[in-house]
Amino acid sequence: MAINTITFLLFFVVVFILYYLPIRLKKEGLWQNLVLLVSSYFFFGYADWRMLPLLIGITVAYYFLGIAIEKRLDTKAADRLMALGVVLGVGVLGYFKYLNFCIVSFSDLLQAIGFNVSLHTLKIIMPIGISFFIFRLLSYSIEIHRGMMNASRDFVGFATYVAFFPSMLSGPIDRPNIMLPQLAKNKQFDNALATTGMRQILWGMFKKMAVADTLAVFVDANLAADQIGSVNSLTMILVIFAYTFQIYADFSGYSDMAIGVGKLLNIKMATNFRYPLFALNIQDFWNRWHISLTSWMQDYVFLPLSFMFRGWKKWGTFLAISINFLIVGIWHGAGWNYAIYGLYHGCLFIPLIISGGFTSNAAIRTNQIGLPVLSDAWKMLLTFLCVSFGMMIFRSATISSFAEIMAQVGASWSTKIDFGSAIGWLLIIGMMVAEWIQRKREFALDLSGIKSRIIRWCIYLIVLFFIFYLGGGEPHFIYQVF
Amino acid sequence: MKQFLIKIVAFLILLLVLSIGLDIVITKGLQRFYEYDTEAMIDLRNPNVNPDFVVLGSCQAVCSYSPEVIDSALHTDSYIFGAYNLTLPAHLALWEEYKLYHTKYPSYVLMTVDYSDLHYAPLKATVMEKQFIPMVYDKPIREYMLSDGGYNALEVYTPLYRYFGYHQSIKNGIMGFSGVRTGRRDRYKGHEKTSIGYEFARADLPDDNYIVVEPELVNCLSALLNELQVSGVKPILVTAPLGYELSDMINNAEDAYRVYDSLANQYGIPYLRFHDHTICRDTAMFNTPAHLNYIGAEVFTKLLMDTLIKLQY
Lengths: 482, 313
Fold this sequence. Notes:
heterodimer; A: mainly alpha; B: alpha/beta; five-stranded parallel beta sheet; two-stranded antiparallel sheet; 7 strands; elongated
């Protein structure tokens, strides 16, 4: 059930009505959590009911694990239990997401060294959102072990946190110490927050349905297996750029919709994107792109590794970053292209580490007319080029298809460029201009600064018209498959 | 929450009003925009187009009948109100639609059918569903879209929803309404002159070697023939030439042809079989195994007219 469909709208209207019914049960927040939990399980089961026992089972396991860790805090038993939690989570994720890939890769390796083996892959159905809810559970057990939070004694609230439907499909990966306290209280309807939520949903829909889906037509047509060979160099470069905008609009669009839905329920979720295409360097990019994943990785992978390798100075930092981004890469999917994507981004940090600019916070400087100063504009362009190149590794199903795409970049420098649909590029410009102007706000359609309701409504109607005119394709989110 | 809901409702009302307005603009605009099959649909609803000899059918009607030959042979004014992938319920709906806009009916209506017409497929499942959308304001088309057309109530009754995803139609509708562009006529009296150059692969080939004769479609054709006779029109049933490669693929096509024979006897109308004529073995007459090219259309129509004249129907 994609979030931008009529089915979801009908589903959410029912949830919204039930959620705000003035029913107060003995425990604070219980009624609202029950509504959210049942609707989240319905949402999850709608995709594949067979995976529901897995979600419920693993939620129960971590619930009791959290309590057990807390009871044995600062003892070796707590360490073992936390390790069990990590093994359980990683194991479940590994089984559903990576087992077949490992089997195939192992088989290929054996054949490469001369052993003729026939290994069969298993028919494994990957549960939706598995990467997201496993990471929530891991975060929960680790935070308890670190003494940063108490284990939840409210199973309904905890289960709701794990299965929270707005962020089930594509995140954000919310932290338990942010979400659980919100779920523990009765939430009153917040007019201002809900209005902001509606605007954010609208902006998300525009990015996904108008921008991303329009660009997808151009990108898919030129990157189809039987078409790549006929695409000239300049067109291929445009395709690469277009894909970067497409994936940004698709993923951030979904995040905006998910966060907007959360706001309608008076639940504040983590910001997941902060205008990453304006990043000044690769570190700045990862501070702005898929923030919930980056911060998760920083807290639970990078910082511990940095500490472990602290004796190796810059080499230690580089090693920690490389492992960090290798995991980021393979988190996305079971494929060597994802691993290479991660390592590629790790390597992009080398200049920053060497120059010592790794720990400094980048801030965009603007000139008198509000545009970035030339040096910052140049940095943004360079970062964009590096990121776009990496996105091609990400998109390519195999290494050989990536090589084919790159070969086309240098193959035929004909001046006949296929721009695809002009409206796609106009949308990119429109989206980027809006985001630049609004870069200090949470999202571009945050019109709380415009006092005139007529102007605001006109803007909403224009955005809706673009969604209507350009939308209508089969709803599918790129990050849904992770 | 009350304030929030009031704002939402007010905005939705505004949106609904604007949607209805835009829906009218796009629909009316498409009714004036000539593109592909819409040409025939626009002329069907034009009270100034009053042919005396009408051909109804799907792609075979569009490709295989030459109005110039019909007009010359019968000294009449003909028109082909056909469109690709139309089904029998669609033809019935189109006849009802024709009656809405005309007080004078044609003397003859030739219904071109083939082995696949009695095999059910909702219009929406086929390629050309959007040709009916601009006529959605008319009751016969609306009823057809909801019953056999494969549309649901949301798509038929919600303003703008039916255009969601059809970028080109939205654009054409707005341009047609504003008069900026009204498309281009590609056909003459509904006839598409397909090019010479036979290609088997272009054919819309059946999924398997058997067709299923659906009783409800037989009833639909019967109802259409009855409707025509009640309206004072003389119906004619014709199976146009099919390339022999296609005919040879279907094992039980005769099941359909027997039905047409039976209906023709029931209503006392001619049923003219050309699907196994010698012309079917000449690929130079065809564009695909299912469609005659423009030369084949002229040759076949001449043969058909000679047969009709001899019948003195």
